[in-house]
Design goal:
With 89 residues, the protein is mainly alpha-helical. The chain contains 4 helices and no strands. The chain is 71% helix and 0% strand. It is elongated.
């Protein structure tokens, strides 16, 4: 029931991690800057995705789609979600 990521996105994320790891070995501050940039991207894109996600899923379904249990799924949904929390009951 997990929502798969497209291969291109998976490869991009893996490559980004590898490159930031290499960068951190030569310039830790640049590694921190790159990590901060990824956080910014994740917050922006995650917010859009959470707002556009279907609201007809219950907590168990949403958690299953994220490959998480319900308790763990609450954190990213709260962080990325709309100002009013999605029902997770």
């Amino acid at each position: 029931m997990t929502v798969p990521l497209p291969e291109a996105v998976t490869l991009l994320l893996e490559r980004s991690e590898e490159e930031i790891d290499k960068l951190t070995k030569t310039s830790p501050v640049a590694g921190v800057r790159a990590a901060r940039r990824l956080e910014f991207i994740a917050e922006r894109v995650g917010s859009w995705a959470a707002r556009d996600s279907p609201t007809d899923l219950d907590a168990a379904q949403t958690a299953a789609h994220l490959s998480l249990n319900e308790d763990v799924a609450r954190k990213p949904l709260a962080r990325y979600g709309p100002l009013e929390p999605l029902p997770l009951t």
